[in-house]
Every structure is written in C-alpha cells, then in structure tokens.
Amino acid sequence: MLSRRIADLAGSPVRAMLETAQRPEVISFAGGLPAPDSFADLDLPAPPLEVLQYGPTEGEPALRARIAQDLAELGLDAPPERILILSGSQQGIDLAAKLFVDRATPVAVEAPAYLAALQVFRFFGGALQSLDRADPAAAWSQAESRPVLSYVTPTFQNPSGHCWSADERDALAQACDAAEVALFEDDPYRDLAYDACERGPICARLQRASWIYQGSFSKTVAPGLRIGYLAASADLFPHLINLKQAADLHTNRLSQWYALRYLEDPSRAQRLNRLVNRYRRRRDLFAAAMDRHLGGLADWEVPAGGLFFWATLKSGADTGELLRRARERNVLFTPGEHFFADKPTPSASMRLNFSHADEDAAERGLAILGELLSQSAGQTG
Ligand code: PMP
What we know:
Distance between the termini: 53 Å
Radius of gyration: 21 Å
Oligomer: single chain
Order of helices and strands: HEHEHEHEHEHEEEHHHEEHEEEH
Strand order of the largest sheet: 2-8-7-6-5-3-4
Bound molecules: 4'-deoxy-4'-aminopyridoxal-5'-phosphate
Number of strands: 13
C-alpha cells in the first residue's frame, strides 16, 4: 500500500531527542540549536498585507537580489536570476537528491557527514561512499568508483567542526572538474567564524563541473523562519525551480520578508558581530570545561567556527552506550554512529553542541560525562 522507499525512512535520532531536550532538568548537547536569547534583538514589525498572497516560486525578487550581492562578494557566479529561496536549506538537500539520485546512484560524502543529508540521499536510494579529503581525485580515477554528486560542508562542518584548508578546497574543485562530478556545497555555518580560517567557497573554484551552493538564515537569524537559499550552475537551475514548484510552490513570504529586513538592516554587521562574540566565548568556556572533565578520556580539536565539538573516546568505547547512561542522568549528546556513509555502526566519537546550554549547564553536563567515562574506565581497567 505504501511506497517501497518509505520502508527505509527512519526519523532523525536528533529530532527524536529534541522533545526530551526541552525538559528543564535536561542538559542537551544534542541538537544544533542557536542560543534562544540570540532572538531577542530581532526587529519584528508587522509585514505588509501583500505578502499574504501567493508569490513566485524562485522567491521574492528583492531578497534574491540582496543574497546575490553577498554571494558575488564570495566570488560565486550567482546572479539574482540563479538564486532560489528555500524553505530552510534542508529543502535544498531534498531538491538536490531528487535531481541527482536514483536507486544505486553513487554519492560521495564526508566521513563524518551531516546526518540529515545522509538520510535524504539514502531515502532516494543513493549508494553513499566516503570522500577522501586529502586526495579525492585518486579515488575517482576509475569510472566505476566515480560518484555522480559530491556533498560537502567544508566550513565548520556539522558534525566535526572542521574547516577545509585552501589546498583541500582546490583539490576537490580540481577533482570535480576532471571527473565531471557535480559539487553540492552546503554552507550554513560560514558566518559563525571565531578564528581565522579559509572560507572561500569550493564552488567558486570550479571551471567546468555543475554545482549547487546553499546557505541558511537558521544559524545567524532564527531557524523557525525556515529560510535558506541556493545558487546553482545554469544547467541545473531550471530543474531545481521545477522541483521546488512541485514540492511547495514557494517559500513562506512572511519569513522571506523578515529575512530581507534582516539583510537590509544597517545594524546587521553589528548584530552578527555580537552573536559571533557570544558564541566564541561559549566555545572557549566549553573548551576549558572539556579539558577539565574529558581531558585524558577523549581527543578533540577546538573548532574555529560553527556550533559543534567532535570528540573521540580514547578507550574506543561506543558512545551510543555512553548516551544510554547519560540519559539517565539527564544529559544528551549525539553519538557518532549516525554520521557515516555506512548504516549506523557503533562509534567512539560523539558530537557536542555548545551554543544551546548556558555556561553552568555545560559545566555540569560535561562533569557528568567525565564521571560516567571514568567509572567505565575503572570497571574495564
Ligand atoms: N545543512 C547542515 C550542514 C546543517 O547542519 C543544517 C541544520 N542543522 C541544515 C543543512 C539545515 O538547516 P536549515 O534547514 O535550518 O537551513
């Protein structure tokens, strides 16, 4: 009675935890939620009535033009006519998968990679393979191992926090050009930069390959607006418009109106600066608390931007098991098993979000994780 592909579709393990995460006694490092107090300084006047009418599939012309200006500064060939406003950048993943992925279509993803993208590519039947960041061209030299699409989040990745170097970015662009692999670059964290790091889009380095570049207002403005955008090469763009039209006609115009107000607000840079300073401080406090409570028990790198620490247990123990015990103590995080091209298998890594829990909660939550890990080290050691 139901479609065959629905059999493989499971809900997101992170979203499943969100409800528990709302309970006041729970300390959550699980989601990627912005700090709730960051919404307080948004200017939200009543919008004009005209936004209640149906609008164009591509999105509001003024918003597309404003986004095109920003993308031109990043070196992207993305005029307003090739900008599509999305109902959150998650929709861009859905549209890209519909455009490229049939059953067994090879898709290259990072290891680890954004779990909700893996779910979408799997849903459409994609055969996921791990991308070798150091030398993508080597793996793609044989036609049979060549992916059709390569999906990457090179700037402050979810979940690893990693920011690709200029050489890594050049190498992937060259590999995509040489092997004619389409590049899908997902860039929702680029503005949350705490330390200097190369952020130039890989799509801007391509000479020939087809591409989709997408961004989001979720991390810098408010995820509840559900506003993202994509730009794409001229061969792909008309198909993406048709897919968007079939999906939901157009993105919510009220939210588009608010997003445009944000972009045109003269104090936008100041507001972003405040947010970045606040998150940098949270990251630093979190890093210090990680040292205090997980030092000697796990390895991690301090991320130069974004919202996540990615930590790997020295013992090699499964973080899924750690989560079961942490839940009993009201602490949540996302175990590493969900972030790889292979179907979930136990992993010693975990993703810890540092933007949502306040300083005291982060300290208590990490102390509990440290305690649980020390206990199990005592049991096995
Ligand atoms: N891509 C990545 C890498 C993400 O981390 C997220 C949100 N967690 C999204 C896309 C989707 O974001 P949104 O739909 O809110 O723009």
